[in-house]
Every structure is written in structure tokens, then in C-alpha cells.
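Record type: ASSEMBLY
Status: queued
Input:
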Amino acid sequence: MKTLLLKKEEISQLISMMDVIGAVEEAYKAFNSGQVAQPDYMSIHLPPPRGEIDFKAGYCQSNEMISLKASSGAFPRNPEFGLPSGMGTILLFDATTCALACVMDGSLITGLRTGASGAVSVKALARKNAKVIASIGTGNQARMQIRAIREVMAIEAIHAWDHHPASLLKFKADIEREFGIPVVPAPTAREAVERADILITTTRGKGSLVEAAWVKPGTHIVAIGTDVQGKQEFEPGIFRNAKIVNDSIAQCTVKGETWHPLNSGIITLEDIHGEIGEILLGKKPGRENDEEITIFDSTGMAIQDNTTSAKIYRNALENNIGTFFAFFEK
Amino acid sequence: MKTLLLKKEEISQLISMMDVIGAVEEAYKAFNSGQVAQPDYMSIHLPPPRGEIDFKAGYCQSNEMISLKASSGAFPRNPEFGLPSGMGTILLFDATTCALACVMDGSLITGLRTGASGAVSVKALARKNAKVIASIGTGNQARMQIRAIREVMAIEAIHAWDHHPASLLKFKADIEREFGIPVVPAPTAREAVERADILITTTRGKGSLVEAAWVKPGTHIVAIGTDVQGKQEFEPGIFRNAKIVNDSIAQCTVKGETWHPLNSGIITLEDIHGEIGEILLGKKPGRENDEEITIFDSTGMAIQDNTTSAKIYRNALENNIGTFFAFFEK
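Status: finished
Output:
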């Protein structure tokens, strides 16, 4: 029994963003087909100033793989040791036997599969004539969203805003150089939001940034930043009369942006349209007209790590990439 | 940043049972010194006839390591694939940075550290003149208990009993050949128990096997088999007037043998003497006379995996054993 070892540089060559989008669609469909087991995740919080390490596991019956992702962040002193502030490792087990099939670096996968989730929601929920994006937040995940969404639509322009002007200018330079999409720095969040066909929020969720009145009819919102209790990016009133779609209702109503309007009584559970996987499976409609505001609230699921890393593993086997190691010799 | 890879055959050479006993003592002491974080573990149950895979994580402030153990069992069809019914993998992270320090096979560690836990309890709780063991159950863990306890006391004889005569005879042959300790097959569990200075139970916990009346004064009981809700090895009355010691009160009162007398009202929480780490630290007394019956109820803790695998890792570094691999090159 041999285990495949994959390093970060191999992984970046082994998977395209289109592959990740396909893997995330597969994950969402499996989740809403009763093919997924995802136990509550484990966290260990280290003494300050260190951050935490999380362990997320998922089983997918359609690919018969079990994944375990260990991801750490934020360790502000790591650069002193020549290390990034957060790292990751993924184990893949063959669910037939529970043999350890693969150990891979997990630094890239969270960013990739989260970016892909936005693109999947754009395919399902944005207007077909959408062309202008507003990006509130200009960090790594904002780049991942653009990288993924450009695979599924033609982006004419990006109106971007950030608390930090230096980050905003670097985002503009990077996106224009890498993708040739013009980025317009917005003087206020409002001026970006008002121009959006698709509004993406990827901030640290330190409080309401986007007001309901700014969002024009027909906008599709990709709400990424709020993934734990205490984070918030939107005025909760924005959920009133919007078509609300969650990746996981169980998660979003506890730790996603959807928690805020529920908590303040602006919506009830019945006002949540459904889960993205239900739309992908045709069990529920996606966008039904060009006027409705659609909100995709994404908190991230272990099963996305599962299908994405399983795709990387299959690509590695097909292309003879990686190093085999026998941890356990029968 | 490089990660050390250790395979099963290397691990078996890298650690002695005395090392494991030391590591388990370290774990118990750390646990009762507020130096441990152990989140609730994650389980994924596969469709039958397959078993489950569990993920247990622990952080130990005294060694600044974080461990994650993935362990699977029981997969009855695995022999068809040339694989054992259960397997394991351990990840070790340097808690200073959360860098992945080591990936090692985890097949041996659960058995070793569970065996060592019995020996630690014998040192703390058995009579100093104890020399006769009763072993109820004769499988792998029964062997591990003997292997560990012989490191801390001279065993004169073992009276062994098992539902399965073939297993009992194989146990006798193996123990006599390996350790030179005479094994007396007992015709009934009672006849073994009545002769015991130390009584070890390592069965599958399918119901009460040991009656209270059989246990003579001064006996130390090592209760291993019951580690999940639903298992049982003892008539609950045995806990009445015994000195009850748990590895973790939080665990034993929910899924250990200690649950049964609590549930039937034979004891209350106040009747539990304490945790083994408190005794090792001198916070509470161990055995106080030659007449009392002591019970060590062990459900197993992630922190035992942590300190044991961290010791293996340190031994590997000191002896230049293992293979380095760069999953993540800064």
C-alpha cells in the first residue's frame, strides 16, 4: 500500500480553476443528494498571539473518498521563521478500505475552492447579461473570486473598494496585468456597490459595510467574508425580499451572513430559498427574472475540500506527478 | 520547511514500551495541569459493512506539539485487498508555527499507549506486593497490557479467560514464549478473577462479565474494554466502596465503565476519587492500604497520542531515522 505525496508547487500545476469549479459543483450536488457526511469540525486555539488550527473532515459517497484538512491561521510571528501566517495539509483516504491514499499540501485549496464557489453561484444566480462587478475587499480571496468568475462570464469592469488604499491600488495593478480587466478604484463602498451587476464581499467582516439602499435591482451578491459568528458585511435589511441561497443552511444560519437578518427578525427560516446544490440539481429554481436581488451566502464546507483534493489526486495519478511513499507495508 | 515521514517498521524500532509509559505519564500530568486542549473528536461512519474513521486532535503546551490521529476500523473486507481491518495515520504540527513537522503511520500507537495506561495505573494504584494478574480477554490489547505492566512489576502468573478457547490458547503460547510468564487458562471468568491481584479487562464490552462478589479485597482493576456508550464489562455494583480513578472524568462518565454505576444510581459524581493525572502529580493520594479495591477506568485520550508520537518524532530526529519531504517550500 503506497501513499501519494504532493507538494504545493505540484498542486498548482495539477489543477485548473475550471477543474475546481467542476469539483465545487460536484460537492454541492453531492451535499444535496444525501451523499455527504461532514462532522462538526475541530478547532484548537493556541495561546496568543498565535491563532488556531482547524480540522475539517468530509466523506463523499460519489467519489468514495474521505478528506481531512488541517488549516492554521493566523500566526503573526511566522514570517520570522520564514513561514506564512497560515498553512494547510490534506489527507485523502480511500473510503473503501480507509487506506491513506494521499498527503498533499493544503495551502492553496481553501482559496481556490472558495473562489470557485462564487463562480458556481454566478452561473446559477446572476443575470445572463451581468458584466460589471463590485469587489468590496481586495485581498487574496477577492483575486480568487475574479479568477474564478472570469471563467464563467465576461467581466467588463470591476469597481473595487477597500479600507486600505494601498491594497486597492495593488489589486488594480495585479488584476489589470493578470487578466486585462479594468479595475476602477471607488472612493466609497457605495459608489462601487451602486454600479454592480455582481457584488462580491471578501472583507474580514468587521461590521456592516454594505447598506440595503445601495443595491440595485437585479444584483447578484456573493457574500464570502462572514464565515464565523461575530463577522458581518451587510446591513441585514438587504435580505428582505431578496432570493436567499446558502451553501449549507445549517451553517449559514449559525455563522454566515444569513444569521444577522434571522437574529434581528427581518427574515425567518422560511424566507431562505434553499441551498445552492438544490438549484444545481434542478430541485429549486435559480434566478427567475432580471429584477430580483439574489444573495449567495457561502460559509465553506469540508466537502468542497474533498472533491477538489480528490480531483487533484486523480489528475496527479493520470499525469504521473508526485512521490509515492509506503507508510504501511503489508 | 521539511516534514519527517516515518513508516510503521521504523516506528516499531524507535520507541520502547518504557518510552511509551513515560509519554503516557507525561500526558496524564499535562492533562491535569491545564496544559492540554482536546476538542471533541470527529467520526465518519461509512455504509455497512464498512466501519468508521475517527479523527482525534490534541495540543500539549509542555511539548508545544499538536497531534491529529486518523484511525479506522473495522473494515471486514480489507483482507481481500491485502490490508488490515483498521489503520492509522498521525500528523504532528509544531505548535509554535503550525508547520507540519511529521507524518507517521499510526497503526501501532493506539495499542501501545493504551497498554502503557494500564502500567501507569499499576504503578499508582496496585498493591506493592501484587504479583498475579487476571486477564479477561486475550486479544491484542491483552498482550499490550502484559507487555507494559511487566515493565513496572514482576508478574508471577497470569490467569486468563476468554469466550474463545482458541484465542486463549494462543495467548498462553505467545505470552509464555515472549515473556516467560506462565499463563493459566481459567475454566470460568470467576476462577481467574478470584485469583487476581490485578484484574485487566480488554474485551469488546458486550455486557457485564465480572461480578462484584468475585473481586477480592486489595485488587487493582484496569478497565479498558469500555470506551464508547453501550459497552460494559462489569457488574456496576463493583464500583460501590471502590476507589474509582478515571483517565478523564468527562469521558469516563459518558462513555466509560464509570457510566454504568452512575446511571444506575450506585455511585454519584462525588464518589469518583479523581483522575490518574492528579495522583501522578501528588494532588490526590493513590492506594492508601492493602484492602481497598482500586478501579482505573480508561477511555483513552488524544493527548496520549500526542505525547507518544512526539516522543517517537524526537527519537527519530536524534537517531537520523526517517525520510524528509518538503510539502511546502517557502
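Annotation: Chain A has a mean pLDDT of 96.
Annotation: Chain A touches chain B through 57 residues (CB under 8 Å).
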